[in-house]
Here is the input.
Amino acid sequence: MRSIPIALKEKLANRFKVENTNSMANLRVVATQTSVNSLLSEPIHEDIAPAFGDVAVRQTAGESDLSLAYAICLDDGVAKVYKRKFPAGMEFPWEYQWTLGAATDVAIEFNGVWKMNAEKEWYYLQTEEYPYIFYVRSGNLYVQSWTNSDNASLLASGVSQISACKGWQSSVEPDLDQGLIIGYLKSGSVYYRALCCQENGSYVWEAEHEVATLGTGNTTLSVIRTNDFRIGFLTQNNGRMLLTLTHRNYAGMSVRPETVHINASNVKMWISDINELDTLNKECASGNTAYPYVLLDEPDTVEISVASVEKLNRDTGFVCYGFKLHLTKPLYGNIDSGFPIKCTLSVSGVTVTSASYDSEGQALVLYTSTDIRRTVAVTITMPEYRSLWYYKLGLQRWFLPTLSAVAAAETMDYFTFGNETAGISIASTGAWIDEALFTQCFHPAHTAVIAVVASSISLQPVSTLPI
Here is the structure.
């Protein structure tokens, strides 16, 4: 049992309570919203006589119950933040966290969303990780998110006392939100601002509102939340306690969701007739060395490469249906179905469907899936393939390496007329006279001209390629 301090005994021994002995009763209403079985009644610290403060509890997503409590206290005019773990046993004492600074009043509260506890069938506030801090300094009300003092916002001026509370928000229509409410007194009148969800999902501090029903002359304020989805403003006014309530804002339309509890009992199981099948109980794998290579290379040896590329052209149309790649060395081995599949062309949508080897021309012949215009340059890439080989350094086998070649674009020539010239010379002339009427009886005559035209024509090639 703790002993009673001597100063308190002297006050209790006084027959009358008078102001000059600091024993006059002075009441300030402080209501703190929390959950059942989580009343915080023990002292936070005893080394400094604290003024008023506030407490907020946390339950984030994934936590089955309250996990932490944060408190903000005014110690000799300096606001300090403390923390303790839940459950609220003596093994979890309050721990000092950080100092906010000078203030005349403070408040702390979490923002979050309302969730239904399916097991207990009631709503709980699923909070954010850290609370909001409210404080009054030089008559100005500020708010900041936890320790982020750089982004502190000014909410009101001329403020004497504050109280914070998280209101109800509809889980069906999130923009029906009472918001995170901070109430405050200005010249004895009650005002509040709220951080509310908007239609677009963003959160905004809405404009200042006055609680006109409480009038003036209020000396203390406490903002509370009721279990019937309201917010209350509780004040002390000239020896009276005044309370005003908002309209209801149902979190889940005030209809408890239907729940079904299922238990299994007297479970029976039947197994139908089992058909036994004999399967192989031994598995084995075998392999062979189809294409062994033992490579002993020497510096600057000559590798196999593509000497030239020949197009397999159609008789009609300026197109080709494949390519013949002449190699610098003879090739041996087998071309199976896997080789053309791994050959690639630079023309989109065209593949190599089959391949063969022309030993006489020492060339690989590739056939394409569709015809290709000869005016298009085509890059042909053949993969490294171990079923094909060539001889290097005498009789040493070397497998076919990756080869690449380009079939150059061609031009299609059209011949037109150009540099046309013409020359005219008189080869022979003759004259004859036709009938005519002349006053002096001249005989009419006609003159015949025979011209020989000599001309030269040359044909100029014109390409099908764009200019």
